[in-house]
Amino acid sequence: MLRISKLTDYATVILARLAAQPERRFTAGQLASETRLAAPTVSKLLKQLHRRGLVNSTRGLHGGYLLARPALEINAAQILDALEGPMALTECASSASHCCIESSCLVGRAWQRVNLAIRRSLQEITLLELAGLSGASAQPSALDRGFPLHKRESL
């Protein structure tokens, strides 16, 4: 099963809160309180998001955290990459593939296509949409547009 970690889910909640008021600086404590997440978890995730360039931090009396760029310019793939590393369904779909059967494998290319389709779909979903702030109806993903979910068989 494909599943993001609980920490990645929490980081998305934090980013969504920042996106809701992009001009406001939030302290880690304020974010913890408003998202109902544990303060140590929020602090840990903010440090990671800062290292990965998704949030900016300012120290001092009027310090806090802001998104590093508009929510419309941050997508789900970037968030996942920052917290989980680049997504790869199989070893051969990663950029540093070390699969010992890659040269003779018959299914690798198909899994690489699936990996690419998922990545494209993640790139289409912005933080603005994840935060429920886009106001637009959801667009079908690359998977929906390119591949039918069920094939009808002719009788």
Protein architecture, described:
The chain is 46% helix and 5% strand. It has 155 residues and is mainly alpha-helical. Strands 1-2 form a two-stranded antiparallel sheet. A hairpin with a 5-residue loop joins strand 1 (55-58) and strand 2. Helix 1 crosses helix 4 (76-84). It is elongated, with a radius of gyration of 19 Å. Residues 151-155 have low confidence and may be disordered.
Oligomeric state as shown: single chain
The count of β-strands is 2
Strand coverage percent: 5-15%
The helix fraction, in percent, is: 40-55%
Report the biggest beta sheet as strand number plus sense, adding barrel if it closes.
2 strands, antiparallel
The largest sheet has its strands arranged as: 1-2
What do the pLDDT scores average to? Answer: 85
Order of helices and strands: HHHEEHHHH
Query: Which runs of at least 5 residues are low in confidence (pLDDT < 50)?
Result: 151-155
Number of helix segments?
7
